[in-house]
Structures are given as structure tokens and as C-alpha cells.
Amino acid sequence: MALLVTIPASNYCEKARWALTLAKISFREEQHAPMFHMMSTIPKRGRSVPLIKTPDATFKSSDEIMAWCAKTLPSLHSPSNAIEKELYFDNEFGPHARRYSYFMVFSLNLAKPILFNPIAHTWEHTFATSLFPVTKALVIKGMKIDQEGSDRSWIIIQKFFDQVSELLSDAPIGTRFICGDTFSSADISFCSHASIIILPPQSRFISPYIDIEKLPTIYYERIQQLRATRAGQFVMYCFANLYPQSPFNTAKL
């Protein structure tokens, strides 16, 4: 069985997990805290997550994993521009979604349960929680997570929601997708990255730890603003209707 190495709340890991499950590829998920994931990825000749190790190969990014899944489920890449849009969202939208989300959960002291609850009752949990101030500082420095960066990312996030809203046109939600009539890798990419911002309730690794009604007004209003767009409605629809609901097979160290 394939082994998927993740940081559970990562938007890129969500994308890989969604593709694997949709393609009905059996896998076991090995979950880690940030930085601690490298104990697993480096021996597998990788560094970042998601990474998946199969008996025959190792895929070291969400787009490599998606391409592997598309061999089993060709519809993921069947629209002619699906790969282009997928990579566009991965490279230009995903990093801003991640920076904005990290800044929110760090500044509101919500990060610990999101990052560490999935690995509860493990030796890694003990070390990761004790080293949280160090991990937090490294993540903030590595991803340039600060108020100024979050503000810049928010502007770009809004532009992406506007772009996708335009692509979806005025067709009823659920009848048209980003690349046309087929649910593809582009949709999974955008929805996965957007999920850590607008928090659909089906998202397993962030939404359970955040009560949006109790967020500061600025974050609550921004979530409602994006959810009200056609792109936001689309993300909520995809999570409610197209997001795999079966439990994942997880491994803890």
C-alpha cells in the first residue's frame, strides 16, 4: 500500500488526499507536525509534503501525486487546460492562502490544536508541543508570515476568488466547473487552497478547531465575504458534494 506523508492541515496535502481518494487508490497516511515531517521525507529522498511512497516510485509534490492519480482517473486531467490551471493555483494562489491562514491561526492562538491534535498520543506529539515556540518561529521566518504579508496575501486572495467566479459564469452552482463541464485537478487545487481560508465544515483538519462565529470581526466578515462569491459558493458545494467522506487510513509514530 502507498504511504502518504503529510502535515494534516496543509492545503497541498488536502489536494493530494482528495485526488488519491477520488481515484480510489489505497494509501496509508503518516501524519506529522511541521518540521518533524522531514524525519520521514528526507530518508525517502524528499523534503516537503505531501510525499507519497509506492512500491515502485516516490512522488514528491501534490502535482506529481495528481498526475499519478490521473493515470487511474483520466478525467482529472481530461480538460485541455486542467493541468495549467491546477499549477497556476498551486503556484500563485496556494502560497498566499497558506500565509494568510497561518497568520490568522498564529495570531489568534489557534495553531496548537490544528497542528498537534492529529498526532496526539505519539512521541512526536510530546516533542512537537514542547518545541512549538521554535517551530512557530521557523515557520514564520520561512514563509514570511507577518501582518504586512497577510495583508498583501488577502488582496491577492480576493483577486483569485474574482477570477474563479468569472470562470464559473452564471451557471447554477455544481453544473459548471473551472475548466468546463468536468470536475478536474483544477477544481481540486482551487478548492483545497481556498478551504483553509473559508473553512467549509467538511474540511477535517482545520474547521473542527475554529468556530467562525467566535472569530474577530475582521476574519468573520472576510469569510462571509468570500463565501458569498460564486467561487466561494462553488468551494462550499464541492466540499459538500464531491469531497471524499470516507475515513482515511492514518499512521502515527
Automatic annotation (TrEMBL):
CDD domains with a match to the protein in the record: GST_C_family (cd00299)
Keywords: Transferase
One GO MF term: transferase activity
UniProt keyword Ligase, yes or no: no
TM spans (from-to): none
Database matches in Pfam families: GST_N_3
Signal peptide: none
Domain (GST N-terminal): residue spans on this chain: 4-68
Protein's name in the database: Glutathione S-transferase
